[in-house]
Structures are given as structure tokens and as C-alpha cells.
Amino acid sequence: MQVRRLPLVAVFTCALFLSGAERSPAIPQPPAPDAKVPAPPAGWVKEHLAVVDKKLDGEIADLVALYQHIHANPELSLMEVNTPNRLADEARKAGYEVTEKVGGNGVVAVLKNGPGPVVLVRTDMDGLPIIEQTGLPYASKVRVKNRDGVEVGVMHACGHDIHMASWVGTARVLASLKDKWSGTLVFVAQPAEEIVAGAKKMLDDGLYTKFPKPDYALALHSDPLTPAGVISYSEGLALANSDTVDILVKGKGGHGAAPHVTIDPIVLAARMILDFQTIVSRETDPLDPVVVTVGSIHGGTKHNIIPNEVKLQLTVRTTTNATRDRVLKAIDRIAKAAALGANAPPPEVKVSLDEFTPATYNDVPLARKCGAVFGEILGADNVRSRKPVMGAEDFGRFSEGKTPIFMYFLGTVSKEKYDAAQKPGAPALPGMHTDAYAPLPEPSIRTGVRTMSLAAMNLLPPKGK
Ligand SMILES: [Zn+2]
Ligand SMILES: [Zn+2]
């Protein structure tokens, strides 16, 4: 689904193929059991939640309308125009100092409110090339030409519209409660999350140098499999390193009836694909998670022609630098060894550094600090621990400069739909990136704004103290 652009690649000819800047955190940090949890003082959450809820009650109808507007008008990665304009307007109206076109289509909205820490709140903005099939009255009917000139449908199938409505709601709530906290808010709307490019673009354009550098960075992501009103998060590792690898398998074409005078790149590619499986099964510690998936294979034109070459496209998921280096080198080694064995020219093995995104590690003390507040807001049963997954998100990039980051997952499904899906034999709930994903707006956004507002305020000291 990713639109492939490969200007920046590392070709496996030099020994050191990964620059230091492209490295993810060195070692997965196991949750520190003794990480201090400076819980807010007794009564703090209750008192602040009451004022947040009061403000939110006046905003929620408008936020749902904003959500429906954004949902009906999605824009593809790197093609965000109206969405950032709207978010910039909303932040400006809420009293923030707004800078647009940061790292392309990014928006940075700053609210300085006295001495104290800098808290960053991030949303993403892009939709996906999917034709929406939800049947909702505000379903997207948008069709555009993608960057390759192909007409596609566009849909917010990853819930970035829920993120944006929650972001605007949180920005409004925190601005209206300026007398309750001291410090600086940096609200960031990043483009191009779905191609894991936007965060890097914004950081490369000076997000942490031209604007106040955050002491904490927070984000939420919608969860299509959990009821609204429930959130979940991981401590430490949350999401994996993601690399894409392109392999051009070279052979020598000829007639399909005379294979002995050719070097068949299809047989060779098949051998490589099977050999890659041993990277996980035979070369990797069973307790070290790794995924090597060949998601695309293209070669040949006709039954009886052996082609000159075959193209493979791989996604590689790891969770540490050391394993990432080892697995990428193993792919290169195995591809070249297979070619040597077939008496074929060496294949071209390219890692796209543009499409790399580092693992997301939730800072443990920060996660626990936010988790303590969430428990009081939603009730302990509605705050769940979550296993890390091998998916990827470029929110991990915001840990640049050792910034503690925290991403949590926001349930978005109605209780009825969730309960129905738990029955034996019932169809599964539509997942993320599917054409049927239809988050329940009101309670999801409400929960997003309540949790994010209180999490941010809990990181900022009270005004005048
Ligand atoms: Zn997505
Ligand atoms: Zn997403």
C-alpha cells in the first residue's frame, strides 16, 4: 500500500550500510520495576477532570462535526493541504501561535504559558488509498490521483481523523484552562505517517530546534478492536523497527523449453525466499522477535519465456539495532550466496533509508505517570496493558534527543459491536486499514480529549507555583 519512492537507499556493497542517525534505540529497555510513579495528589484528577469535562461538554458536538468533516475529506500522504489548513485555523482560534508548512505539510502550534516543562502532543493527518465501504452518511467519496498518477479512493481507515478531532479538542481544553498549569504546549500535526516519512521531515526541518524542544511527547492511536472508553498501552517496547528491502534478482533469459542455456531468476528468487525463512527460524534467538516478509514478487511475462530478472520487495521488522543490522546483512548474504550457487550475477539488494522507521519505546516512568491518571479517569478496568506488536509508527522518531515519548491506544468500537464480535462464530471486527473500519466518534473523541488533556496537565506544574 505504500507508494514507493526510493531516492535514498543503502546498497549492500559497503560494510557499514546504516548510518548512526538511522539507528533505533540500542537495547530494548525492559520496564524498570522501580520506575517512580509520582502520582498526582489525592483529589487532583477528580478536580481537574470536572473542569475538563465541563469545557468538553460545550465542545463535543463541534468536535464530532469536525471529525465527520475530516472523515469525509481525507487526503493521502504528502498530499495533505486542506487538512493542515483546517488544523492550523483551529489551533489559531484556540489561541496558539501557529507555524505551517513545517517539513512539508506539518503544522506546529505553540502555547507559552509561563515557566515549566514543554509538552508535545502529536496527531497525524493522512488517509489511505482505500475505497470506503462503511456506508456511513459521512463516508468518504474522495477519489484522487496518487503520486504515481493512478486514481484511487481515499479513506481515513487508520483513525487519524479521530486523532485530529481529539488533538483539536485537547488544544481547546488546555488553552481554556491556562490558569491551571504552567509551561509550554507544542501541538504538532504531522503529515505522511502512513509512509513513515512525516515525523522525520518535520524533525529535519527543525521541529526540535526552531520550536521549544519537548521534555515529553505524547500521542494516541485509535484501536479498532477495543471498546470506546477503554485504553491500552505498553511499557517500553510498543512498536517495531521497520525496514523495506528491494532485491533485483538477476539471471539470463531465454526460451522456457531450453532452461539449460539460461540462468532462471524465477527459480533463483524462489530459493532466496525459502532461504530467507531460515533467518528467523535458524539464525535468530527465539526470544528475539523478527519478521522477514516477502510481500511482492514480480518477474516474467509469459508461460514459455524465462525472464532476465525478478523483483522482490520485503518488509523487515526487528526491535533492536543489533538485530536489525544482523538481519539486514543476512538478507544480503543469503541473496548473494543463492545467486553464486546458481552461477547468476550478484543481485542488487537495497535498503530504503527513506522508509525506515525506528521502534517506538514508551518511556516507562512517563507511561506509568500517565497510566496513573488514566486509571482514575476511566476506572482501572478500562486501562489495560498491551503487548508490543511488530507494526511500526513514525512516532518513535519523536524520541530524538532522548525525549521521553508515550503513545497509548484508544478504543473506538461501540460496546454492542464489540460484544457481538466476541460471540462464537461471529465475524471479526473490521481492523485497521480495512474499508469497513468505522470508529464510534463521540465516546472515542471524548475519551481521547479527557485522557490527553489530563495526561498533559499532570506533566505541567500548577500556575504560579
Ligand atoms: Zn495506518
Ligand atoms: Zn495510524
Structure description:
The protein is an alpha+beta fold and 465 residues long. It has two domains: 39-239 and 359-458, Zn peptidases (Aminopeptidase), CATH 3.40.630; 241-355, Alpha-Beta Plaits (2-Layer Sandwich), CATH 3.30.70.360. Helices cover 31% and strands 24% of the residues. It has nine helices and 19 strands. It has helices at 44-72, 82-93, 160-176, 198-204, 265-283, 321-341, 364-378, 415-422, 441-458; strands spanning 9-11, 97-102, 106-113, 118-124, 143-145, 151-153, 183-190, 216-227, 231-233, 236-239, 241-250, 254-255, 291-299, 305-306, 309-318, 348-352, 360-362, 383-385, 405-413. An eight-stranded mixed sheet has the order 2-3-7-4-8-19-9-18, sandwiched between helices. A five-stranded antiparallel sheet has the order 1-16-11-15-13, with helices on one face. The chain has a two-stranded antiparallel ribbon with strand order 5-6. A hairpin with a 5-residue loop joins strand 5 and strand 6 (151-153). The radius of gyration is 24 Å and the shape is elongated. The termini are far apart. Residues 1-7 and 11-28 have low confidence and may be disordered. Bound molecules: zinc ion (2 copies).
Set down the secondary structure blueprint.
Blueprint: E1 9-11, H1 44-72, H2 82-93, E2 97-102, E3 106-113, E4 118-124, E5 143-145, E6 151-153, H3 160-176, E7 183-190, H4 198-204, E8 216-227, E9 231-233, E10 236-239, E11 241-250, E12 254-255, H5 265-283, E13 291-299, E14 305-306, E15 309-318, H6 321-341, E16 348-352, E17 360-362, H7 364-378, E18 383-385, E19 405-413, H8 415-422, H9 441-458
Parallel strand pairs: 4-7, 4-8, 8-19, 9-18
Antiparallel strand pairs: 1-16, 2-3, 3-7, 5-6, 9-19, 10-17, 11-15, 11-16, 12-14, 13-15
Helix pairs in contact: 1-3, 1-9, 3-9, 5-6, 7-9
Bound molecules: zinc ion (2 copies).
One zinc ion (ZN) binds at residues 158, 160, 193, 221.
